[in-house]
Amino acid sequence: MAQFPDTPSYTGFNKPSRIEADIADLQHEGDIPPELDGAFFRVQPDPQFPPRLGDDISFNGDGMITRFHFHDGQCDFRQRWAKTDKWKLENEAGKALFGAYRNPLTDDESVKGQYRGTANTNAWLYGGKLWALKEDSPALVMDPATMETHGYEKFGGKMTGETFTAHPKVDPDTGNMVAIGYAASGMHTDDVTYYEISPEGELVREEWFKVPYYCMMHDFAITPDYIVLHIVPSIGSWEQLERGKPAFMFDTTKPVYLGIIPRREGLKNEDIRWFKRDNCFASHVMNAWQDGTKIHFVTPESKNNFFPFFPDIHGAEFNPAEAMTRLSMWTVDLANNGDEFDSVQQLTETVSEFPRIDDRFTGRKNRYTWGLEMDMSRPMAGEARSAGGAPMNCLFFRDMETGAEQHWWAGETSTLQEPCFIPRSPDAGEGDGWVVQVCNRITEHRSDLLVFDALEIEKGPVATIHVPIRLRFGLHGNFARSEDIGLAKAREAEAA
Fold first, then answer.
1. Residues 441, 446: Cα–Cα separation, whole Å
2. Would the pTM of this model clear 0.85, i.e. be above it?
3. How far apart are CA 430 and CA 366, in angstroms?
């Protein structure tokens, strides 16, 4: 009998779910916009079996992909495992074989050398495929219509790096998917790969480069000419793993770098400009853009480490006040011959994370952004926190042009998961559309999907879609139109 540990990662609202399901026409309040015709996919870490070592962090659960399919004013639900090599090996064995998060030294001998990826970080749609992503392995490809797993994508052997990012970008000009892979030649190495993939699924470019030091490179930005990559000291080493320490630990003594990496064939390390600043924490990226010789890069920044489960490498206690992230703009000038930043500007007092934009403006100056706000002044139930400990209790909207902000509070017994913007139509203006996000109803142990008018979130959701099961703390998700992922044809076939 499966017995999960009595620890925060496996109890309460974050108790393992392990449910695959199909539910047609979910109950809802309000009106689902009839123009919405497509699917929102999101992923949650959801362990298939109790952890091999008795406990682990939530980030090590197997990927479970949720699809909300909007059509004809209704919403259908489908949920399936991302069946990684790890999932298949453990499913056959009937128990966990892989050990601690990002620590292969703790694995069963029978799975040494196998991909450890869980495909639990992002559900990404591109080229008619569903990409289930975890940055320590290649991308896992699934069918977005059936949600069956195809397997890891190595582009016919053209991909020589070992890893693929959890946060690809699509260049609005070329239509190419742009990605990186850190620790590309093996764990803890300073090698990074840069990839471009065509809409037809062909790997059209792979370039290798070095970074100042190995660390978690969870996200990045692009502009028409550059990859913009921040190096922040959530660091790891074999020594850490051998001592049984977490895979990542934060080092407040190391500087932070911003790399401006040309997007071109024949990339050499000397082509890269590395700008240097004082220590801080930053992970997710809102966007970046070029302004003459200047590059602007916007990210939620905090003074110190955001993740309590990746502790200070020097033994300092976790500092919640210094962990609060606020949108900040980092600016560097390529006309500057030195390595110093041009400026660092905090944009708001609002504490937020998981920033999202209208993705059609990737790499260009965007006007609008949405994110998860952590408003500590609001009343909250004791359990109303994410697996990371932060009370993500508000949806946050900011007009970057005027500075105007809107805030929508989910209530004292609810928290929110990452928002996703959906354009009203492919040629709609920036921000013209909807924002969708999962809401955790903590005391009721169930979830809702909320649909907002993107530019008027303070009015509350225009539709609240009830999910009769509990969706665990999730990470990232994205939307695709029905016609782009085979769902329109699937509906036609069912009707026939």
1. 5
2. yes
3. 8
